[in-house]
Known about the structure:
Layout: E1 2-8, E2 13-19, E3 25-29, H1 36-45, E4 49-54, H2 66-73, E5 76-80, E6 90-92, E7 97-100, E8 103-109, E9 118-122, E10 125-127, E11 132-133, E12 136-137, H3 147-156, E13 166-168, E14 179-180, H4 181-187, H5 196-204, H6 214-221
Parallel strand pairs: 3-4, 4-5, 5-6, 10-13
Antiparallel strand pairs: 1-2, 2-3, 7-8, 8-9, 9-10, 11-12, 13-14
Amino acid sequence: MIFKQLFDNKSSTYTYxxxxxxxxxxxxxxxxxxxxxxxxNLLKELDLKLVKVIxxxxxxxxxxxxxxxxxLTKCSTIMGEHTPAEAVEIKVKDDEYINLDNLEIRAMHxxxxxxxxxxxxxxxxxxxxxxLLINGTGRTDxxxxxxxxxxxxxxxxxxxxxxxxxxxPAHDYKGETVSTIGRExxxxxxxQVKSVDEYIEIMNNLNLKKPISIDENITRNLxxxx
Length: 226
């Protein structure tokens, strides 16, 4: 299997390239528009055919490269069924599987950060978008975010996965690249709560600044970056 984790310095976004092997089909998760040329060069270097691009949710802090990648490679665009982006070709349901050669990726609706947030599970790899971060969790104060939904997505879905499941989030701001579900359950400060009310209280008092260019980014991402 080919697995590449790519990082965008401006937005601290992780993009993931996956394939079952050299010369085979490939999939990209959460591409950033400024880095599309890098993705195309990597695909050529590895002799891969990009067939699918997934966005975990409508991002607020960067513009997706999905539309540009589709124009260049004729790949299909994929998001969860609750996305407000009408331009998406394939809208997957909760627990639906996406196939890539002999690889299977399970779509999991994990709302809270946004109402359309999905995570994607491939064997022991969890691509959690902004739902679960390393030593943190996604904010819930815009795009129909909801702290109660986030709590349910975390404690009743994601944290039910085996401890050894590898966590690959859409962002990290401190240089971390990967964690595990077991490590996050034990050490993530946002997950050391005793009730949903305690989690809501924490999330309601973060007082975070809104991302730069949030309105423009969301508008463009509703059109997959076009």
